[in-house]
Amino acid sequence: DAIKRLQQSVQEGRLAGKASIAVTDKAVRIALNPESFFSIGSAHLNPGTISVLENLVGLVESFPNDIIVEGHTDPTPVRGGAYRSNWELSIARAVGVVNFFTASGLEPKQLVAAGYGEFHPAYPNDSEANRSRNRRIEITLVRRPGDAQ
Question: Which of 118, 36, 131, 109 is nearest to 70 (CA)?
Fold first, then answer.
């Protein structure tokens, strides 16, 4: 039921145009794509990101298995500030979303934060628009053998 609600929301509901979803027998992958997830060098959630995450909470709260929150960066080198590398920045982005989810009532023991730095771009890093889209979060809902389709 949770997967069907997610698919419906992504296709025609509150997440239409703001997320995509891929369902396999092992996982449900949600790629969130609000206009700009993060500013360069920042792990602070932009306002558009917060509204997307608020819509997502109600859809994943009934999901019984692990929820992996994956942080990503663009390849712009980190200079100064709170983070020494894109690795640290990507994990800080994931932890920020995990904190948002726990504050919204999701079960902390289900949540996992992962950081991929700039090494898994979703788009070519050939323009500022694409680099902005690569500063993102992806969420994986882990499925167990025997979970219903």
Answer: 118
